[in-house]
Amino acid sequence: KSSVFVPSTPIPGMKPGTSGLRKKTKQWMSKNYLSNFIQSLLDTANKSSPPHEILVAGDGRYYNTLAIQEIIKLCVGNKIPHILIPRTGIMSTPAVSSLIRSLPNCCGGIVLTASHNPGGIEEDFGIKYNEGRGQPADESFTDEVYERTKVIQGFWREEGEDIDLNAEAGTKTVLGSTTVTIIDPFETYISTLRTSFDFPLLSSFISDPRVSILFDGMHGAGGPFASKILGDILGVEGLMRCESKEDFGGIHPDPNLSYASDLVERMGLLPDGTANPDFTSEFTLGAANDGDGDRNMICGKGIFVTPSDSLAIIADRCECIPQFKGGLKGVARSMPSSGAVDVVAERKGVECFVTPTGWKFFGNLMDSKEAFGKKSYSPFLCGEESFGTGSDHIREKDGLWAVLSWISILADANKGNEEGSLVQVKDIVEEHWKKYGRHFYCRYDYEGCDSGAADTLMDGLRELVGGGGKAAADVGGGGEIVFESVEEFEYTDPVDGSFSGKQGMVLNFKMKSTGDKARAVFRLSGTGSSGATVRLYLEQYDGKNFQGSAPEKLKLLGEEAIRISKLQELTGREQPTVIT
Ligand code: VG1
Ligand code: CO
């Protein structure tokens, strides 16, 4: 057996999106598809520094095991000295990031996941690459991979025995000039979380008989990690759907009001996120993770915490988390996320960045000092409206980290409260709104739209920039919501100067009676595997009235945005697929 060069020809459409390349599983399984992409990826990684050690892990979805076995053969063919595989082949994305960071010789990780997209032979599979600091590959890297997929002539491969993915951690197999080592998926990540949080404090709070926590793993990669950390170590009893499954039990593993409906119901909530007047939940905290364990949804008894509010509240109270004892130095949010965290940062005198969608933009800010010799923003907090929250303990969003942050906040709010009734999530959120005002927020997703129609919609909005089309857009509007302007969001990375254009169209509004600002943002999703998903993000600040349902409050704004963008005429959609 030896390494052979297998001739192949370029396959179109291998352009990674917001977070890796996502396609239908069957496409990945078609001839040379996986091999072409992996060879292009290894060639790109090889350019910066020849890969010495690579981690290969996935979220456990259908094709995970087969793909790992094939990628090993390709890595052996490419004479990569060392490959690390977690036992079972399954690791959450945050655990991957933390492990890469802990290994001095590891150049990166190939992560087999389509994250929150459904899994199975008829559904989605995907591949992401995380670089040596544990961060998602940046645009220059993924652009380079794409360029190579367009000219590839073949790939290196070496036939060999399959690796036993259930072997004990530490088991080594030598294949050609490569050593494959099975490693423990949990160890490093658990010790990272132990340095971020006060585990003894958390477990003593959890053991309080008044406290009860419900966690939904959505049958994703976060499940086994939650069982170990929340269950075995911290004593949480309410664990649901924590065994990972190849098809996520047939569900859409995206923790939001629509797709985590069981949890939402058990938390005493209606599908629009408001309290169910006929049902009081027994749970203090409810949380869910997505397919690869990097997203989180947070609910309390009868209250849903929007991800943007969750970030703002964690920022406001972060000093109760050991990681932030020294004081918060920087925060960031993706542009479509609400401005709730901006207000907290301003009051705390902490620098606040607004970045394009996707976690890769946070990494440079976190590493500004170490990797770029600039000012340090550590400890750093960041998040996205798409149920992503995290910090610089790793370089990915982290579903479990967010849950532990909320348990820390609850424990702190109940310090010294041994007998009375518990301070609940609802109390914490309402107190926050009282202090800072409320950023009402929700998102409409229109999935599976025609790509041409979606592009026309965005182009139409682009024409309104600069006020040229303002008069036209105003016709039929008026009333309480006054349309002000349209702008296109672009970003120049303050650390390395790289530029990202076309990051979303922002429509600015003002409320006539109060002068409060409102905003509607349009973006096309970069994580789908077919067609186009139009996302419409709605946000309205209210400094006085905090009560009520966000979708209800934002209905008028939504109608205005839909009218101005001509969404209905262009896409033929009467209703969004998902409101969250
Ligand atoms: C979506 C979210 C974005 C998130 C990305 C990856 O991207 O909007 O905030 O970073 O998914 O999340 P898009 O381009 O579809 O809007 V994950 O958990 O799927 O890796
Ligand atoms: Co994810």
Automatic annotation (TrEMBL):
Keywords, alphabetical: Isomerase, Magnesium, Metal-binding, Phosphoprotein, Signal
Pfam families, per database record: PGM1_C_vert_fung, PGM_PMM_I, PGM_PMM_II, PGM_PMM_III
EC number(s) recorded for this UniProt protein: 5.4.2.2
GO CC terms in record: cytosol
Gene Ontology MF terms in the entry: magnesium ion binding; phosphoglucomutase activity
Catalytically driven reaction(s): alpha-D-glucose 1-phosphate = alpha-D-glucose 6-phosphate
SUPFAM superfamilies found in the cross-reference section: Phosphoglucomutase, C-terminal domain, Phosphoglucomutase, first 3 domains
The protein's required cofactors: Mg(2+)
BP GO terms, sorted: carbohydrate metabolic process
Stretches assigned to the Alpha-D-phosphohexomutase alpha/beta/alpha domain: 14-150, 188-299, 310-436
NCBIfam families assigned to the protein according to its UniProt record, in alphabetical order: PRK07564.1-1
PANTHER family reported in the protein's UniProt record: PHOSPHOGLUCOMUTASE (PTHR22573:SF2), PHOSPHOHEXOMUTASE FAMILY MEMBER (PTHR22573)
Recorded family membership: Belongs to the phosphohexose mutase family.
Official protein name in the record: phosphoglucomutase (alpha-D-glucose-1,6-bisphosphate-dependent)
